[in-house]
Design a protein that fits this description.
By secondary structure, this protein is an alpha+beta fold. It contains 16 helices and 15 strands. It has two domains: about 300 residues, 3-Layer(aba) Sandwich (Beta-lactamase); about 100 residues. α2 packs antiparallel against α12 and α14 runs antiparallel to α16. It is globular. The N terminus is likely disordered.
């Protein structure tokens, strides 16, 4: 009798944590995602009223991007809850010498402004560069101190990694401990998040290497993690730990969590690295040059979904996560969204292949009119890309081409530039030949 009860309990536990059959809507969604994005590694965890299901390798480690912000945000809320700091305190109180300006006048940024993404900083790498290699949080903060803000603190929402990296430095200065040590001892260990690491883990066995699109396939793409950027977006974790993390929020297992929810009352509210979406859905996305992720959960319904991938296709990753959540809640959903980098890869793969074909054709062109028209088109297209893309993406063309965009983008630019040079050279040859005919 006892033996039968034990066996039944063990079977129940197994059924509560194993993946559902491959014919499920989740498996189909993941398969469609991989086909559309060319992403090689996807791990999903689903919480459904206490039942935990995994799709893909639940132990595979991924960079979780800006999902990291919810860890940094919770640590700050703990310091507030413990009475060590106040949300109304000035950032300069804990980062001595830090200044900011709006309208050329000095302004005061509060901790709450950072938590709510209303500091006045934007996510423009051109205006507020991320930490360079070897920079500590303190070094980086000094490098952006004294900058002009885009809006007056506390007035306008503008998502910015700057805010959460500054919060990471405040954690260091208030606690007297390195950010990494504080997060491990005060957040990760108490919640038994044993596979989640602050920055790259020492044991790299389970890391899924990042990847990058190019010519409708993916290539391995590794980028060193910079210490001064970790609090805003460079934790590593896996599906198993994020399942524990979401469940902790659903059950408010950490004292400061309930305080965070008080700031997420209506759709659009942002606080402590979490955002309130339609209904009572809360979560955050993450994207780095070589990974993308998203988690969303409903505290009242006891449901949560997280998708982790090793490719930067954030819009598609968000869409997959949202669609799985909709399936769980019995709601309809649309098709998988196409990410901007996927669109780029499709366009610039075509640009590259057609550009190479045209370059091979150039030596056979003899009419100046055709060469002039082709030269104008190539030059205008190249100029538009060089001028508009940095404005649209808020980053230098070098960062876009070398770190974020698919490899086909860089190749396309190079081929367009080569085309301009070849057309000019061919035009010169044709003109010389015509001159010879006239004098001959």
């Amino acid at each position: 009798m006892v033996k039968g009860v034990v066996i039944a309990a063990a079977l129940a536990l197994i059924m509560n944590t194993v993946s559902v059959p491959e014919t499920s809507a989740v498996d189909k969604g993941v398969a469609d995602f991989r086909s559309a994005t060319k992403c090689e590694s996807v791990s999903v965890v689903v919480l459904d009223h206490g039942k935990v299901s995994y799709y893909g390798d639940k132990y595979a480690l991924y960079q979780i991007g800006s999902m990291t912000k919810s860890f940094t945000g919770l640590a700050i809320e703990k310091l507030i809850n413990d009475g060590q700091i106040s949300g109304e305190d000035s950032v300069a109180k804990y980062i001595p010498g830090f200044t900011a300006y709006y309208g050329s006048s000095p302004v005061d940024i509060k901790i709450n402004d950072l938590l709510t993404q209303k500091s006045g900083f934007s996510n423009s790498e051109t205006d507020y560069p991320s930490a360079a290699a070897g920079m500590s949080l303190s070094d980086w903060a000094k490098s952006i101190s004294g900058k002009e803000l885009k809006s007056s603190p506390g007035t306008e929402y503008a998502y910015s990694n700057v805010n959460y990296n500054l919060l990471g430095l405040i954690i260091e200065n208030v606690s007297g401990k390195p950010y990494r040590e504080y997060m491990e001892k005060e957040v990760l260990q108490p919640l038994s998040l044993n596979s989640t690491t602050v920055g790259e883990p020492q044991d790299k066995t389970n890391i899924r290497s990042g990847s990058r699109l190019g010519f409708r396939r993916t290539f391995r793409y590794d980028i060193p993690v910079r210490e001064g950027s970790i609090p805003a977006g460079y934790f590593y974790s896996n599906a198993e730990d994020i399942g524990v993390w979401m469940n902790a929020w659903i059950e408010s297992k950490y004292p400061a969590m309930e305080k965070v929810f008080l700031h997420l009352e209506k759709e659009g509210d942002y606080y402590a690295g979490l955002e309130r979406f339609a209904g009572d859905v809360i979560g955050h996305s993450g994207g780095t040059p070589n990974y993308s992720s998203r988690m969303i959960f409903s505290k009242s319904r006891g449901i949560g979904v997280c998708v982790l991938t090793n490719l930067n296709v954030a819009a598609s990753t968000d869409s997959l996560c949202n669609n799985i959540f909709a399936e769980l809640t019995g709601n309809s959903h649309g098709k998988l969204s196409c990410d901007v980098w996927t669109v780029f890869d499709i366009i610039f793969t075509s640009v590259s292949t057609s550009g190479i074909a045209f370059i091979l054709l150039i030596p056979f062109l003899k009419k100046k009119g055709i060469l002039i028209a082709a030269g104008i088109v190539n030059t205008l297209l190249l100029a538009l890309i060089l001028i508009l893309f940095p404005i649209i993406f808020g980053a230098g063309l070098k960062d876009i081409a070398l770190f974020w965009a698919p490899w086909s983008f860089s190749a396309g630019l190079l081929i367009l530039a080569t085309g301009v040079v070849c057309i000019a050279a061919r035009y010169g040859v044709v003109k010389v030949n015509e001159g010879r005919k006239k004098t001959g």
